[in-house]
Each structure stands twice: as structure tokens, then as C-alpha cells.
């Protein structure tokens, strides 16, 4: 068992180093309270006033929504919104859960089956993704089963996220946050 724990810790360190080298932030959470509070603190630091939450584990979502309300954030979930895509265009932050993370490339892997899920990580300027430690993979080729499962649905979209969005302008200068989130936080859920 000790060898397996060391292997995961090694993967976690590689993922953190790579994701942070690409401009993202990584925090490790040991339980649901710490996971929720880590996300809330990040949104407070980024001065978010509104957030759209989707596909977050229920045990975290309850604490998360309570704490976000306490902070005074306006919360949207898509369940009661007439046009959730237009809401996504207006909110400051999005929070969801990634299907996996790839250590060697510092990448979050997401798959979505509708526009709301797909746009949640790309329209708001701030994005928080929860990722289960058990879904931390060493390299891209290990995503094969995730990709196969996602592709069984005709409307699925798979997205690979490596930190904030970036774009190179005509002078070949790399700019962060041009066509997507300026700030991205990956919260690794160590108990899952």
C-alpha cells in the first residue's frame, strides 16, 4: 500500500508542477469541507460576485453553496434558469468537476453532453475544477477509457484544460485569459 500512496503523491506533485507552470493553481483538499472552503477562498481572492455551479459532488455542493451565500455571491445552477448559456456569459466564475487530470502535461480532462457543461469552464473569467485523486493519470494515453465512454454519447465534447486560456498575438507574445478564464484552480480531492 505504501508504494501505491507514494506513486499517487509523485503523480500529484508532477501534476501540480506542470499545471502551475502553465499559469494554473492547484490546491489539495483532505475532506469535503476543505474542498469547499478552498474554492470559496479562491473566489474571494479573485473578487467574484457571481458563480455558476454544475456537476459538483453533492457532499461538496451543500457546503459550497452555504459558504458562497455567506460570502454574498449570487449562485446559479442551471436548474432554474430559463437560458443558462446567457447566464454563463454574465457570471464571474464557474465551478464543476473534471473527469480526470493528466500529471505529465498538467491537464484537466472534462467531458460534457450539453452547452452549459461545455461552456462552464470557458466563458467565465474564473474557473474552479474539482478533480478526484483516483482520477489522476500519468499520461494522455491513459485517458482512452474516458474518451471512449464520452464518445458513446452523440453530443459529447471532450476538453483538455491546461491552466488559464492563452493566445499569441501578432507580435508572438503569449497573453493569458484572452478567450476564456483568466484564473483556473484545480482542487484535488484526496479522499476520492
TrEMBL record:
Pfam families the record matches: LUD_dom
Domain LUD: 13-188
Gene3D superfamilies (UniProt xref): NagB/RpiA/CoA transferase-like
PANTHER family according to UniProt: LACTATE UTILIZATION PROTEIN C
Descriptive protein name: LUD domain-containing protein
Biological source species: Caldiarchaeum subterraneum
Lineage: Archaea, Nitrososphaerota, Candidatus Caldarchaeales, Candidatus Caldarchaeaceae, Candidatus Caldarchaeum
